[in-house]
Design brief:
- This protein is mainly alpha-helical.
- It has one domain (2-57).
- It has helices at 3-19, 26-56.
- The longest helix has 31 residues, at 26-56.
- It is a single-pass membrane protein.
- Its main location: membrane.
- It comes from Ameiurus melas (Black bullhead).
- It is found in: Membrane.
Length: 68
């Protein structure tokens, strides 16, 4: 099995789990919310890091910022 098929299989399993989420018990819903919070936090940190890099790359360092 190639990598593309494996990724599609994993996405299919996730999609099936998401479709059954409204009938799931509270532990499954809590686990899903924790994973969702983790993914959203990671994406927010990546966006923040990219914004910081883009905003500070064009600036020249000041002489006072040099490390002794």
């Amino acid at each position: 099995m190639d990598a593309k098929q494996e990724v599609l299989d994993i996405l299919q399993k996730i999609w099936t789990k998401l479709q059954t989420l409204p009938e799931a018990n509270s532990i499954d819903i809590g686990g899903f919310l924790i994973l969702l919070l983790f993914v959203l936090t990671f994406l927010a940190l990546v966006v923040f890091a990219c914004a910081q890099c883009c905003c500070s790359c064009g600036q020249k360092p000041r002489k006072n910022d040099s490390v002794l």
